[in-house]
Structures are given as C-alpha cells and as structure tokens.
C-alpha cells in the first residue's frame, strides 16, 4: 500500500490503514474515584539504544496488565522495533537485543499503533517512569504524530510513599523486589522487567488501599504532597 504524508505535509508518512487506526485510538480515561482494585493499569518497560532521551531510540516494548487487582497474564505485549542502521553499542550488552533482531523488527509506526491499541484508555505504570514516558512520547510523536496524554505513574515514587519505614537507599527495581522477597527470573528484558514491575506494583497498590489511598486521584494527591514536602526540605 502506498504511503502518504499527513498533518499539513510535515508529519510522518502513514498508510491509509495506519491513519484510520490512529484516528480510532481511545482517549485517555478520566481519573475517577473507582477503587484501585477496579482499575486497569498497563505496566510497561522499554529497552532503548541508550539513555539520551533526545537522541536514543526505543528498541523494544514489553507490557503486562493489572486488572481487577491481579496481573492478567492473558494480556501481555512484546515487540521489537525495526531501526534502520542500528549498530551494537554498550547498551547491547545490557538489553541483549542483537542488531539482526532490530533489523527484522516491526516497522515503528505499526509497532506503536499496536501498543497504543493494547493500552486503550488505561493509565500507565513504569519504574522510573519519567524516562519511559519521555522516550515513548518522543517515539509516538516521531512515528505517528501522536501526542501521549495518558496518566503515567512512577512505581519508584509510589514505593517510598507507601513504605516510608523501608530502609534508606532503596532506589532501583532490584532493591524493591528484593525488599519484598520477589523472585525475578530475568532482568533488562522489556517483558521480564514489566512483569517484575507489575508484581511490585500489585503489592504497593494493595498497601495503598489499606492506607485509604484507594483511587487514582487520592494516590496522585498523596504523591504531589510528598513532592512538595521534599521540595521544601531541600
């Protein structure tokens, strides 16, 4: 199918089918007072060509779903994106995605449409979410001309809020999974990291409900309050 450029001739080149899929993407859900247990969350992890949020690219997306207070293993997403000219780098030693896998990956616009259709209107969770949010938003803008507006919550920020008595120095995903005795079979693989993050998030969301933080607005208000307190104390 031939491609054409949309958005005043300056946007990415999309096929008619891709443009129709883009238009059909669901709007982010309003944050309401539903119990956290009733909320569908998409927990994601990205593997990238590096840590530069302005230059590096998303190479792989892994995601799982928390729904009705449990990880729904029937709802999983995994995709490697095709990147022309990608070469092995220091990051390859971490994520293990060979250049041949990248060359045979899914065309970025198709991969990102697949992912956003998987997300639907759900809020997103990630560990150290700012990086994932900015990398995903940039990829969506470049490949689809799409502006990411979904709520994005940081599990690394939720953890110390919900567990203030945890020993100091817990910062990484490995630290917090070890704190709760979670067995992580594999790391630095998008799907495995997303699952580990989801297992951690499930514990934290359960504890949040016990602390009367049983809706997204209540949880976000508590996070904002903690941010202000930390800003004043610096």
TrEMBL record:
Keyword Nuclease part of the UniProt annotation: yes
InterPro entries noted in UniProt: DnaQ (IPR006054), Ribonucl_H (IPR013520), RNaseH-like_sf (IPR012337), RNaseH_sf (IPR036397)
EC number: 2.7.7.7
Domain of life: Bacteria
Keyword Acyltransferase: no
One function term, GO molecular function aspect: DNA-directed DNA polymerase activity
Record's keyword terms, sorted: Exonuclease, Hydrolase, Nuclease
Secretion signal, residue range per the UniProt entry: none
Pfam families: RNase_T
Catalytic activity reported: DNA(n) + a 2'-deoxyribonucleoside 5'-triphosphate = DNA(n+1) + diphosphate
Domain Exonuclease: 40-210
Alphabetical GO biological process terms: DNA replication
Enzyme class at the top of the EC tree: transferase
An annotated GO cellular component: cytosol
NCBIfam families listed in its UniProt record: dnaq
Stated name of the protein: DNA-directed DNA polymerase
Organism listed in the record: Pseudomonas xionganensis
Phylogenetic classification of the source organism: Bacteria, Pseudomonadati, Pseudomonadota, Gammaproteobacteria, Pseudomonadales
């Amino acid at each position: 199918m031939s491609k054409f450029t949309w958005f005043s001739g300056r946007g990415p080149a999309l096929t008619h089918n891709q443009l129709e899929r883009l238009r059909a993407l669901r709007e982010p859900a309003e944050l309401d007072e539903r119990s956290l247990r009733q909320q569908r969350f998409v927990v994601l992890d990205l593997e990238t060509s590096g840590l530069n949020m302005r230059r590096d690219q998303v190479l792989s997306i892994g995601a799982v779903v928390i729904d009705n207070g449990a990880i729904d293993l029937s709802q999983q997403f995994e995709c490697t994106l095709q990147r022309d000219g990608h070469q092995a780098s220091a990051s390859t030693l971490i994520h293990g995605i060979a250049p041949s896998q990248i060359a045979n990956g899914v065309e970025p616009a198709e991969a990102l449409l697949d992912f956003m259709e998987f997300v639907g209107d759900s809020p997103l969770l990630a560990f150290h979410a700012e990086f994932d949010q900015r990398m995903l938003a940039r990829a969506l803008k470049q490949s689809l001309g799409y502006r990411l507006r979904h709520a994005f919550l940081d599990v690394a920020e939720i953890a110390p809020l919900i567990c203030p008595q945890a020993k100091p120095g817990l910062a990484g995903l490995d630290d917090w999974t070890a704190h709760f005795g979670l067995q992580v079979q594999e790391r630095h693989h998008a799907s495995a990291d997303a699952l580990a993050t989801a297992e951690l998030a499930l514990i934290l969301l359960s504890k949040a409900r016990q602390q009367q933080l049983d809706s997204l607005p209540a949880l976000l208000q508590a996070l904002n309050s903690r941010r202000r307190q930390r800003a004043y104390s610096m």
